[in-house]
Amino acid sequence: MTTSFASALTAAHEAAASQHYPQGALYVVATPIGNLADISLRALHVLQMVDCIACEDTRHTQGLLRSYGLDRPGSQLLAVHQHNEAEAAQQIISRLQQGQRIAYVSDAGTPGVSDPGARLCAALQTVGLRSIPLPGASSVTSAISVAGAVTPGQGESGFLFAGFLPTKNAERLSAVQKLADEPRCTVLLEAPHRIIDMAQALALLGDRPVTLAREITKQFEDIATMPASELASWLQASPNRVKGEFAIVLHPVAQQQGEGLDSEAERVLKLLLAELPTKAAVKLATEITGASRNALYDRALELKRAAEEE
């Protein structure tokens, strides 16, 4: 069944047309990650208004625009992907300097988040041109919002976005071992053909809770939480569980005061803190003792707070 977005386009014009849209600016537009209705009214208005749309895949974006009743000639679509981003940026810069408004979209979600867009925005910054974000769908924040990832005894905390792990087994295992020392909530992304390999690597984390979010916002969305050691077997229990795109949330872990530090690491840290700024002291203490950098940094903050309270 084809859905009509005619009323949404009217609402987009009424809600957003009166706002200011400067010329010579790039509009970085988040697009749906699965459900077409997750487009914002401002995004619809901007996609109608701009002079040109730069996109990761012109064919995909043309199909997306037509779903909303926005048909653009091919001459108004410019391919900007990971293989040509640096070169295409120069063409966009030239157009913006002529006063054009240009939108940039990736195939799905928010550009620059494991998608092209960051190099483009960096290139614009170097010549003093403006990039304007239009927020919207993101598998990262969507997965975080339902994972219930809280630090035991502390509640909500920040998170680390680690994106895709390395594709080679040895490098992937090394990356997971580093994540084992990371107490914060961590979000990973993975493709269907590598999800089992990732799950087997994450088994190193043992009982640490993991939330797997598959096909977020799509018809067969599946979200489940379990110990990391059980993730691979859970996925292999059904062929459907390994289909689609994945966001994986590693839940945070509680740290005891000074966790992971022996008496020698603590002694070295205190000596260095007496002479150096916190980051420099932690970096040097890590190199000298081999202790966890995260544990040293957390302990340094604890010592600093204690000194301020005295």
SSE arrangement:
Layout: H1 6-16, E1 25-29, H2 41-49, E2 52-55, H3 58-67, E3 77-79, H4 85-97, E4 102-105, H5 118-126, E5 130-134, H6 139-147, E6 159-164, H7 169-180, E7 185-190, H8 195-202, E8 209-214, E9 222-227, H9 231-236, E10 246-250, H10 263-273, H11 278-289, H12 293-309
Parallel strand pairs: 1-4, 1-5, 2-3, 2-4, 6-7
Antiparallel strand pairs: 7-10, 8-9, 8-10
Helix pairs in contact: 1-2, 4-5, 7-8, 10-11, 10-12, 11-12
Q: State the strand order across the main sheet.
A: 3-2-4-1-5
Mean pLDDT: 92
Overall structural class, as computed from helix and strand content, comes to alpha/beta
What string, H for helix and E for strand, traces the elements in order? HEHEHEHEHEHEHEHEEHEHHH
Largest sheet: 5 strands, parallel
Strand content: 15-25%
Work out the helicity level.
Answer: 40-55%
Number of DSSP strand runs: 10
Oligomer: single chain
- First-to-last CA distance: 68 Å
Describe this structure in words.
This protein has 12 helices and 10 strands. With 310 residues, it is an alpha/beta fold. Strands 3-2-4-1-5 form a 5-stranded parallel sheet, with helices on both faces. Strands 6-7-10-8-9 form a 5-stranded mixed sheet, covered by helices on one side. The radius of gyration is 23 Å and the shape is globular.
Quick description:
The protein has 310 residues and is of the alpha/beta class. It contains twelve helices and ten strands.
Main traits of this protein?
310 residues; 41% helix; five-stranded mixed sheet
